[in-house]
Amino acid sequence: MSSNPVNTMKKIAVSAIFALATGVSGTASAHVVLEYQVAPAGASYKATFKVGHGCGASPTRQVVVDIPAGFRGARPQPKPGWTLQVQRSKLATPYTSHGRSVTEDTTRITWTARTPEDALPSAHYDEFVLVGQTPQQPGPLYWPVRQVCPDGSLDWTEVPQHGQKLQDLKSPAALLEVLPQGGGAGHQH
Predict the structure, then answer these.
(1) What's the pTM value of the predicted model, to 2 decimals?
(2) How many CB atoms lie within 10 A of CB 154?
């Protein structure tokens, strides 16, 4: 039986339920995590990073997201009261998108509060969003995220080693599980 968009969505839903049941997102209240932790390969994806606290009592004044290799065309969503910085780098292997060769791509996105009043208080919650395209190959995709505060920083950058579980890490990177591509699902480039 061939895959179709409905079957792909079912696979995503089942994977999300499995991830929740096995504790992949069990650290959501303590760490920066993605709202949607599964997506099909080669598809458009909206990465929503959930930030649930600052550095101790210190507010978050900056959020820095490193774009994982293979994720293409990352574009941030602006936030009122925050400035954006988009860092681009040359690609080792260019790709084609909409008939043109892409030789450099976004490698880091930084949101910075304009004033102390715009910073995210430690007792509050907010989201930082970007869009782009998932890699063509399925597998785990880790997103290193750094929170910078007036009194310290938190680096959510650890990636599990072979045999290690994400929940065993003290400061895990946000995880997106890229699933095999279904027939007709996603916006292809």
Answers:
(1) 0.80
(2) 21
**Which residue ranges in the chain fall short of pLDDT 70?**
1-29, 183-189
Residue located via tokens 């007036």: 150
SS3 sequence, the chain?
A: CCCCHHHHHHHHHHHHHHHHHHCCCCCCCCCCEECCCEEECCCEEEEEEEECCCECCECECEEEEECCCCCEEEEECCCCCEEEEEEEEEEEEEEEECCEEEEEEEEEEEEEECCHHHCECCCCCEEEEEEEECCCCCEEEEECEEEEECCEEEEECECCCCCCCHHHCCCECEEEEEECCCCCCCCCC
> What pLDDT score was predicted for residue 61?
97
Report pLDDT for 39. Answer: 97
Q: Cα separation of 132 and 46, whole Å? A: 7
Which of these, 131, 71, 130, 67, lies nearest to 95 by C-alpha position?
71
- Encode pLDDT of 23-76 as tens digits: 333 333 478 999 999 999 999 999 999 999 999 999 999 999 999 999 999 999
Chain centroid to Cα 169, Å, comes to: 18
